[in-house]
Structures are given as structure tokens and as C-alpha cells.
Known about the structure:
With 180 residues, this protein is of the alpha+beta class. The protein has a single domain, classed as Gcn5-related N-acetyltransferase (GNAT) (Aminopeptidase). The chain contains 5 helices and 7 strands; from the N terminus they run βαααβββαβαββ. It has a 7-stranded mixed sheet, with helices on both faces. α4 (113-128) packs across α5 (143-151). The longest helix is centred in the middle third of the chain and has 17 residues, at 52-68.
Amino acid sequence: xxxxxxxxxxxxxxxxxxxxxxxxxxxxxxxxxxxxxxxxxxxxxxxxxxxxxxxxxxxxxxxxxxxxxxxxxxxxxxxxxxxxxxxxxxxxxxxxxxxxxxxxxxxxxxxxxxxxxxxxxxxxxxxxxxxxxxxxxxxxxxxxxxxxxxxxxxxxxxxxxxxxxxxxxxxxxxxxxxxx
Length: 180
């Protein structure tokens, strides 16, 4: 009697993540993604639910920001769907260092999309803008953001203890950076 072996083949599909310049027509999809309670609680400066007018303003500011070199916003596309937003903003005086910000809609979490979008914007920053540094931060109660930034090549540079109060507890602020 011959024993057969079952072979399992795992095909890793290359996910299609791209970042592109934002369009005003992206605002509605982005507003829907950011208005999830689990998403918006990780982003400072937004009320729940995020009004469409606020997202239209943000997208419009992102479009205008390129002209003044104050910000470079991108819409994240995953398999032809809007999945979130990633941006370089708040430059230092010589515009050689920018802050990195991003959000991903909850239905797109845990797929490596944030990591890939961060890698792409870092490449844009260093190659196209000739930056020498990109920095970011996240609250300690958001370990997924920490993982995405670490996988994209940012290094943890420091921690500000008890930086912000959320509800009845304090959270630390994780400080990240990458240099060319």
C-alpha cells in the first residue's frame, strides 16, 4: 500500500497598494472610513462622527499644500478601493524634515496596507523632496501604528511618559524617526 502525500501550495498574492494625489471626490469615502469609532479615537483633532465638510476641507488643504510645500497628502488605494490617507506635513524651517501622519479604514486593518503606504511616502520624501528626516508619533494604546512604522523602517527614538489622558488613563507618546 502506497501512502500519498498531499502537497499544499501557498500562493502569496502581491497586494496592490498605491498612494496617489488626493482628489476632492475622495472626501466622502475618506469621511466614511475615518468616522468609525475605532479609527477616529486614534487620531487627534477629529470629532466623532467626522463631518463631510471637515473631510472636504482636509482633502482640499492637502491638494493646496503641495503648492506651498506645507504638506504632501496622498490617498491610499488598495485593490482599487480607497483605504485611507497618508501625508507628510508640518515641515521644519528648512523643509528638510516633515511629520508623517496616516489613517487606514478599519475594514483594511491587518493587511499590511499601512506599512506599504508608509514605505511609499518615505521613498517619495527622500527621493522626490530630498528630505533628510521623516518623523512620526503615536499613542502607546495604538500598537498597530507602532508595528506599521517599525516595519516600514522607522526607529523608536523615545517615549514621552503620560503624555495624554484618554478617559481615565494616561497614555505615552511614542516618538519615531527615519533619516536618509
